[in-house]
Design a protein that fits this description.
Elements: H1 2-30, H2 46-66, H3 70-76, H4 85-103, E1 110-113, H5 117-140, H6 143-146, H7 149-157, H8 178-188, E2 192-194, H9 195-222, H10 226-232, H11 249-252
Antiparallel strand pairs: 1-2
Helix pairs in contact: 1-4, 1-7, 2-4, 2-9, 5-8, 8-9
Length: 267
């Protein structure tokens, strides 16, 4: 019982750190309230600032996608209790993001700037909508499983963990990755786009496009139904095409499992 309580406490602490990271990310990317921000005047040489920012982004990408690979999960559970594996992923992803928030170096310079109040309000509305899409998408695919709470809670109760079934709720019937659509809205909806913000947006967009390929390969391995779903539904944009034949019984039971390498809202 003590072991189960410790695992549950560990999962709760990891989730609390994720929530802190998520809230900080809103201000960091949006440019308000947080002590460090994505944008600002450059304080280091351009070469040093670029090297630090690129290194921080690379560190997060390697951690975030590397730990999501099935082979790494099998290795990790040799040292970490299996119910705490997802919480450990959430913990290290949050720490990687907090390190990025702490050490990020603004580059100065403005790529574009929306002058009108109405235009700026519209861009901020897209920014806010992106965060809402991210949150809604996580709850549609079981937010608490995605961030490790379901696993540690079941362990605490002594109930065996059962993987989520494959489902296409709500926006998952329109695009395969609404969670990533939300992140792209957040990254690019900037009324004032600085050089550092552009670097961040470009690199994270490339990372998302690459990560989707790895994630979908894993999803097709664990869920054979995913191949048919992938053919019918667009990746990030709705697929406009003539009506398809009526779905088979297998198609009707389709479900989408949580993304293999997404943490909050966490990415």
């Amino acid at each position: 019982m003590v072991r189960r309580l410790l695992i549950l406490t560990y999962g709760l602490v990891c989730y609390a750190l994720f929530l802190l990271t998520f809230v900080y990310a809103v201000g960091f990317i949006g440019g308000f309230l947080t002590p460090t921000r994505l944008d600002g005047p450059r304080s280091d040489s351009l070469a040093v600032a670029l090297a630090i920012d690129a290194g921080l982004l690379l560190l997060f990408a390697v951690q975030h996608s590397g730990m999501a690979r099935p082979a790494f999960k099998r290795w990790l559970t040799r040292f970490v209790p299996r119910p705490a594996e997802r919480s450990t992923y959430v913990l290290l992803s949050s720490l990687a993001l907090l390190l990025l928030f702490w050490q990020w170096r603004p580059l100065g310079g403005v790529v574009w700037d929306v002058d009108s109040d109405a235009g700026r309000a519209a861009v901020y509305a897209v920014f806010a909508a992106g965060w809402l899409v991210v949150l809604v998408a996580t709850f549609l695919i079981n937010h608490f499983d995605l961030f490790g709470l379901r696993q540690v809670w079941l362990e605490f109760r002594g109930v065996p963990y059962t993987p989520l079934k494959f489902a296409t709720p709500g926006p998952y019937r329109v695009v395969r990755h609404p969670l990533y659509v939300g992140w792209l809205m957040v990254f690019w909806a900037a009324p004032t786009m600085t050089a550092a913000h552009l670097l961040f947006a470009v690199v994270t967009t490339v990372y998302i496009l690459v990560a989707i390929q790895w994630e979908e390969r894993d999803l097709q391995t664990f869920h054979p139904e995913y191949a048919a779903y992938r053919r019918r539904v667009g990746m990030l944009l709705p697929r406009l095409r003539p009506a398809t034949p009526a779905p088979t019984q297998s198609d009707r039971s389709e479900r989408v499992a949580p993304p293999a390498d997404v943490t909050t809202a966490e990415w």
